[in-house]
Amino acid sequence: MGLLLHAHFRLEMDDELLGHLETVVVNKFRRSESFLLTWLDGEGAARRSLWMSCKVPAYFQYQNGHPRSLDREWLLRLQIAADGSRGLFVTREDGTPARVRIQG
Question: Domain residue spans in the chain?
Fold first, then answer.
């Protein structure tokens, strides 16, 4: 399981998902764009959101190393969502909601 750290939040998710999110976050921050990141909590069905500010450093930590390759279609869907007014709802490759766990 990989970690995305932003502000005082530690979000735990699988490395493959983290690799795709890292690409989207870096692209947004490179353009000085902030956005809303929303996910379903890994412990239940709670929906949580975090404002991803380009003024706050983000840190990505992989348990098994960065994914070998990125799925272009999945990446495009995530990028389009992040660019929209509702922000990025974290999904798996098949489009279903991904579970993300908040650590400590």
Answer: 2-102
